[in-house]
Write a structure and sequence with these properties.
Number of domains: 3
CATH class of the largest domain: Alpha Beta
GO molecular function: protein methyltransferase activity
Oligomer: single chain
Strand content: 25-35%
InterPro entries: 4pyrrol_Mease, 4pyrrol_Methylase_sf, 4pyrrole_Mease_sub1, 4pyrrole_Mease_sub2, CbiE, Cbl_synth_CobL, Cbl_synth_MTase_CbiT, Cobalamin_biosynth_MTase
Organism: Rhodopirellula maiorica SM1
Pfam family, one: PCMT
Radius of gyration: 27 Å
Keywords: Cobalamin biosynthesis, Methyltransferase, S-adenosyl-L-methionine, Transferase
Number of strands: 19
């Protein structure tokens, strides 16, 4: 295959919305390749038409069979935005293709509802499972979804409501860029009961101040529970200790059923709750100064039913003044105050006790190490890089979480 092939983006308004360059490429092509709904937007001509749908193997073979014929592959909107261009350039090489984009219908949808999309979670239900998408929506601020004929906006709304995710305003944008363009606004309950055309984009905007709801799953692990099982605050989401980091931290705390634990800067309580699931005959004191997060921690503790958890609303180190000395301490958080908290906490740690400090910046890492060294605490460091799989175009890609450091210390007996 040596011919250069043009991948041309086309919108719902068909040829009327194309630039002169894009129309000339289509007019001069001897072969047009694309899905039926896009080929129908191009008037009849002498060009051979090859209909391909979502079958990627069929598309590959059609491209191979082109030889040196001038050809245009029609794609919806911007072919490089959740479109077919990335797949083709990765499969055959970039040198075989030129890409002529149209305005993406996703871009038009966000423009119609007057919302920024620079930090939105964007996805395509033609290539992503609904369960995976719903899990990602739970913690998003804004969402853009390419729906499908089978997974319509009403199906998406139903799936979200089933998981208690009811804190979004929904917009369904149909036939964008055409005279029949329609934008429907409502809450998820109202969207659930409506029917929409196939050509639509669904936009979700989180209601102001809404907290992330837990998934409601009946399954509970001793530790390492998925992040979405915990009620979390917005816009501070991301401060929750990720499940993978929690597993390592809890193992290094070396807890027993009778341990006394301090979680300093407990946030919504994810680590403290799982520590309390282990130290069932001991006490886990979860210290949090933020009133909103403290309230969420109490709600999470009720869901997980951990009687050994003792929420403490206050600012460390004053908040732990009257607490019993701990066998294990976890310190999490950001800012320059973390090394000071570690310095104040170590003298209270029982002989032979463990301390684990979670920091995200190299500066704090060095400062915490210096504090532990001066206190005579034997310590080690782990740098944790976690990437979680995301599926796109039938391929797995990996989305990285922010790197983090765990400083692991043991107070000599």
């Amino acid at each position: 295959m040596t011919a250069r092939i043009h991948i041309v983006g086309i919108g719902d308004d068909g040829l009327d919305g194309l630039t002169g360059q894009a129309r000339n490429l289509i007019d001069q092509a001897t072969v047009l390749v694309g899905p039926t709904q896009l080929l129908e937007k191009v008037p009849a001509s002498d060009a051979k038409r090859i209909v391909v749908g979502s079958n990627l193997e069929q598309l590959q073979q059609s491209i191979r069979d082109l030889g040196e014929q001038p050809a245009v592959v029609l794609a919806g909107g911007d072919p490089l935005f959740y479109g077919i261009a990335r797949y083709l350039t990765e499969t055959f090489g970039k040198d075989h293709f030129d890409v002529v984009p149209h305005v993406s219908s996703m871009q038009l949808a966000f423009a119609r509802v007057k919302e920024s999309w620079d930090d939105a979670y964007l996805t395509n239900l033609a290539t992503q499972s609904l369960d995976r998408v719903v899990d990602n929506i739970r913690t998003a601020e804004r969402v853009g979804i390419f729906t499908t004929e089978d997974i319509s906006p009403s199906v998406v709304a139903e799936a979200l409501l089933d998981r208690r995710i009811d804190y979004f305003t929904a917009y369904v944008c149909e036939d964008l860029g055409t005279p029949d363009e329609t934008v429907t606004q409502g809450d998820l309950t109202s969207i659930r009961g409506q029917s929409f055309g196939v050509m639509n984009v669904m936009v979700l905007v989180r209601k102001s101040g809404a907290a992330d709801r837990p998934s409601g799953s009946a399954n509970r692990r001793l530790f390492g529970n998925p992040d979405d099982l915990f009620l979390q605050s917005r816009p501070k989401r991301g401060l929750l200790t990720p499940a993978e980091v929690r597993c390592i931290a809890l193992s290094e705390l070396d807890l027993t059923a009778k341990s006394t634990v301090w979680d300093v800067g407990a946030g919504c309580g994810s680590l403290a709750i799982e520590a309390a699931s282990i130290a069932t005959q001991g006490k886990v004191f979860a210290i949090e100064m933020d009133a909103e997060d403290y309230g969420l921690m109490i709600e999470n503790a009720k869901m997980f039913d951990v009687p050994s958890l003792v929420p403490v609303h206050g600012q460390a180190p004053e908040a732990w003044k009257d607490l019993p000395d701990p066998d294990a301490i976890f310190v999490g958080g950001t800012g320059r105050v973390v090394p000071d908290l570690v310095s104040a906490a170590v003298p209270r740690l029982a002989q032979g006790g463990r301390i684990v400090v979670n920091v995200s910046s190299p500066d704090n890492l060095v400062s915490v190490q210096n504090v532990l060294s001066k206190a005579g605490v034997v310590h080690d460091v782990r740098m944790i890089n976690i990437s979680r799989g995301q599926y796109q175009m039938e391929r797995v890609r990996f989305e990285s979480l922010n790197p983090t450091f765990l400083v692991l210390g043991r107070k000599s007996k």
